[in-house]
Amino acid sequence: MLDDRTTAAHPPTWPTAYPEGYAVVDVETTGLAREDRIVSAAVYRLDARGDVQDHWYTTVNPQRDPGPVWIHGLTSAMLADAPLFAEIAEEFAARLDGRVLVAHNAVFDWSMIAREYARAQRTPPVRQRLCTIALSKELGLPLPNHKLESLAAHFGVVQQRAHHALDDARVLAEAFRPSLRAAASGGVRLPLLECRPLTEWVGGSAPAIGRQTARRAGGSSGYGASWRPSRKRPPCPHPNPGRYEPGGALKQGMRVAFSGDTSVERELLEDRAVEAGLHIATSLSRLTSLLVTNDPDSGTSKTAKAKQFGTPVIDEAAFGQLLRDVEPADGAASG
């Protein structure tokens, strides 16, 4: 375990492979689903060694009900005159440009940001992200859990307004700086993942642009088509051939489960697997053929069950390679 408390000062040498700058980001949203929207965003820009350069904050009109007001504190009235995401997209992009996006549970923040840019028919200028949960695991920090408040307490950072995007970004920036310097002192590889922008649209047009709209009867939002709306996957037509054999090939019908952060958005990765003839398992059981995760030691329920059942585990990169040549199911013609 690295003694992170003694490495707050600049290490005598700095790894040349480390990024040149970081954008520590926090977004508050109307919910957790892919149809949900950003209601506020904050960015702290840091230099290569984690020192703060500046910060920025904005509220965002989500064009729908603001969701859990009791969490983020932003009501419809407070957001009615806030800019639309398309109106702040350029300034947001300027703060991300050329930097690694840093967030706590980065897959969530990145997914929400990428979807907003897709709706605005623009591309965010960030190519890599770093999750501070993953970094704390790389450093072996003795945290009781992976909450931001626990990371903040470990480094003596005081939270003032939890779930306020600006204060959460500040807290994370202050906790990231000693984490980064501890990693540099110990020669730790930063857990960087690729950020791939989302470009797929359903219905051929963007959501209707307008100010705060009323919710329709039944509780649905009134802002038109959403990016990649929910749909039920058809059942896999192939029987389960059993477990994946390490070093071998995937076979149509294999049951594949995913856990943790992925560089390709999870849903797109699942789409590729389904197109190849694989079955997506939402939970892990003795029948699961394979678990795909970039963090096999995360201690999630799926990784724990994989160890219990002896389920093979591979990372996302290896899975991507295997998807290129999936063997046909027994009795099926190769295509």
Could you characterize what this model shows?
- Helix 5 packs parallel to helix 7 (165-186) and helix 6 (148-154) crosses helix 7 (165-186).
- This protein has helices at residues 69-72, 76-79, 85-96, 106-119, 132-139, 148-154, 165-186, 266-275, 301-309, 316-322; strands spanning 21-29, 38-47, 52-59, 100-103, 128-131, 192-194, 255-259, 279-280, 290-293, 313-314.
- It has 335 residues and is α/β, with parallel strands linked by helices.
- Helix content is 29%, strand content 15%.
- The strands form 2 sheets. Strands 3-2-1-4-5-6 form a 6-stranded mixed beta sheet, sandwiched between helices.
- 38% of the residues are buried.
Oligomer category: single chain
* Strand numbers in spatial order across the main sheet: 3-2-1-4-5-6
Q: What is the percentage of strand-forming residues?
A: 15-25%
User: Unreliable runs, pLDDT <50, ≥5 residues?
Assistant: 1-8, 201-230
Q: Using the CA coordinates, give the radius of gyration.
A: 21 Å
**Termini Cα gap:** 50 Å
The count of helical stretches stands at 10
Give the overall shape: globular
Mean model confidence by pLDDT: 84
SSE-based structural type? alpha/beta
Biggest β-sheet description: 6 strands, mixed
The residue fraction in helices comes out at 25-40%
Number of DSSP-assigned strands: 10
Q: Order of SSEs, N→C?
A: EEEHHHEHEHHHEEHEEHEH
